[in-house]
Design brief:
Elements lengths: L1 E5 L6 H12 L3 E3 H11 L2 H10 L7 H12 L8 E4 L5 H14 L5 E6 L2 H9 L1 E4 L5 E3 L18 E2 L6 H15 L1 H9 L2 E5 L4 H11 L4
Parallel strand pairs: 1-3, 1-4, 2-3, 4-8
Antiparallel strand pairs: 5-6, 5-7
Helix pairs in contact: 1-9, 2-3, 4-5, 6-7
Bound molecules: BIS(adenosine)-5'-pentaphosphate (AP5), magnesium ion and zinc ion.
Magnesium ion binds next to helix 1.
């Protein structure tokens, strides 16, 4: 399965991607996760990226495209991949098409996870992530059994720097302006699929599988 996940900040791209990895054993490639790893390591790329991420703006295409080209050419992508948070604008989508053509592994589908805007703020302000294993929680919707501690591995839960109200508002604007047009981009290519992203996470996942004809 070669898949792009589309959806607003907080739509549940990461949450559904983690379930797809478990089921299909293919990698999730999240540009957000890769960028946060670079920030944590303190690399030059990370320092540059952080200034944009903290404002809720997109990191320049040149930075992200270089990173993706390297990642997609690794062996574990040969049997499929899930792109989460990339592409983010039309220029990135066009470059991705070229990259995948030259690697001989074009997309099967772009899946848009649709959630009403009014639900997103609470999802994002309530999100907590495990520092060790990356599992996501939500203090309102999926709290861990013990506050601040991961159910899966006992790791410490943290809140993302960009999950502050004013940064979230900016991210949602950037999504509407730059990323939402990709829904039409993939519709015109005939590979767009959509799924409702509200309700129970496992039920959404069943719908994802059905929509992708992958049950
Ligand atoms: P990125 O990391 O991609 O963040 P995002 O797009 O804002 O999306 P999120 O990760 O916030 O949301 P998600 O859809 O994954 O939701 P999740 O599953 O966690 O990007 C961050 C930044 O990096 C960008 O702002 C930009 O600066 C930079 N960047 C990244 N990619 C880039 C690119 N290609 N080009 C340029 N810049 C780039 O779920 C959210 C919460 O909701 C969780 O708490 C979860 O538990 C909860 N939840 C999930 N499903 C449900 C449900 N059904 N019901 C209730 N709660 C739910
Ligand atoms: Mg995510
Ligand atoms: Zn954990």
């Amino acid at each position: 399965m070669k898949l792009v996940l589309l959806g607003a900040p907080g739509a549940g791209k990461g949450t559904q991607a983690k379930k797809l990895i478990e089921k299909f054993g293919i990698p999730q490639i999240s540009t957000g996760d890769l960028l946060r790893a670079a920030v944590a390591e303190g690399t030059e790329l990370g320092k540059e990226a952080k200034s944009y991420m903290d404002k809720g703006e997109l990191v320049p295409d040149s930075v992200v495209l270089g990173m993706m080209e390297e990642r997609l050419s690794q062996d574990d992508c040969k049997n499929g991949y899930i792109l989460d948070g990339f592409p983010r604008n039309t220029a990135q989508a066009e470059e991705l098409d070229k990259m995948l053509d030259s690697l001989g592994m074009p997309l099967d589908a772009a899946l848009s996870v649709e959630v009403p805007t009014e639900d997103l703020m609470k999802r994002l302000t309530g999100r907590r992530t495990c520092r060790e294993c990356g599992q996501m929680y939500n203090i309102y919707f999926q709290p861990p059994a013990e506050e601040g501690k991961c159910d899966k591995c006992g790791g410490e839960l943290f809140q993302r720097d960009d999950d502050k109200e004013e940064t979230i508002t900016k991210r949602l604007e950037v999504y509407q302006e730059q990323t939402a047009p990709l829904i039409d981009y993939y519709r015109e290519k005939g590979i767009l699929k959509t799924v409702t992203g509200t309700g129970d996470i496992d039920e959404i996942f069943q719908n994802v599988l059905q929509t992708l004809d992958a049950g």
